[in-house]
Amino acid sequence: GAGVSQTPSNKVTEKGKYVELRCDPISGHTALYWYRQSLGQGPEFLIYFQGTGAADDSGLPNDRFFAVRPEGSVSTLKIQRTERGDSAVYLCASARGGLETDTQYFGPGTRLTVL
Amino acid sequence: DAKTTQPPSMDCAEGRAANLPCNHSTISGNEYVYWYRQIHSQGPQYIIHGLKNNETNEMASLIITEDRKSSTLILPHATLRDTAVYYCIVSPSARQLTFGSGTQLTVLP
Questions:
Q1: Quick one: which of A65, A93, B66, B67 is 20 to 30 A from A26 by CA?
Q2: A44 and B99 in contact by Cβ < 8 A?
Q3: B57 close contact with A: CB closer than 8 A
Q4: Higher pLDDT, A89 or A102
């Protein structure tokens, strides 16, 4: 079956602009996660959705970052007034969601470059 | 304040077993040991997890010491496609994964 997909695969923007990154989880997965990965580092947790609601948004670095999942499937990560330090690979993962030990399945990521 | 310690890099000959160590001396009783790997330019991939007992699946084996302060991930017959960064994570839940810097495993022909 199809895995987690993310679009676009690459996004180049200018400092100060607004960007949206999209994640399509595996069908039927109720849990969805966003991570950010800087060069040479491991992924850093941003936010976790269970269904439509954000169950844990403690990893969002500031109020320029926001994510939604209005119908409990596709999610969009929104970044306002982008800064050069936002340049990273943004990873999305989904999981069945029913159990604490449910495996997270990751997408290929969106590489964001802020000039 | 890292919860796990892994060597930054390791090499392994193709066809041999790759043994990747992880120290987690402050692990709590309710924390699992998870292993993920990340092949270059891809998202992380789940490998295996365990609580107390050793575990084996089609990808790897996980050996956890009796005191649970360290573990070893074993890839029994490493191939070139196993070249990746391997992350050892301790967490009470798969919903709370904190990735460190991992171990870069290079499988050599």
A1: A65
A2: yes
A3: no
A4: A89
**Burial class of A5 by CB neighbour count within 10 A (0 to 12, 13 to 18, 19+):** middle
Distance CA B25, CA B59 (A): 25
Tens-digit pLDDT profile for residues B15-66? 999 999 999 999 999 999 999 999 998 999 999 999 998 999 999 999 999 9
Among candidates B45, B85, B95 on the partner chain, residue whose Cβ is nearest the Cβ of A48: B95
Q: How far is CA A70 from CA A8, A38, A54, B95, in A?
A: 20, 28, 10, 20
Residue where the block lists tokens 């609580």: B51
CA distance A44 to chain B (A): 7
The single-letter DSSP state of residue A16 is T
For the CA atoms of A69, A72, A75, A79, the dihedral, rounded to the nearest 10 degrees, stands at 10
Q: Is the pLDDT of residue A64 over 90?
A: yes
Lowest mean pLDDT among A44-48, A100-104, B38-42, B74-78: A100-104
User: What are φ and ψ of residue A55, in 5° steps?
Assistant: -80, -25
Interchain pair A106, B44: CB under 8 A:
yes
Pick from A100, A105, A107: which is nearest to B93 by CB? Answer: A100
Measured between CA atoms, how close is A95 to chain B, in angstroms? 9
Min Cα distance A90 → chain B (Å) is 10
For residue B2, the model assigns a pLDDT of 61
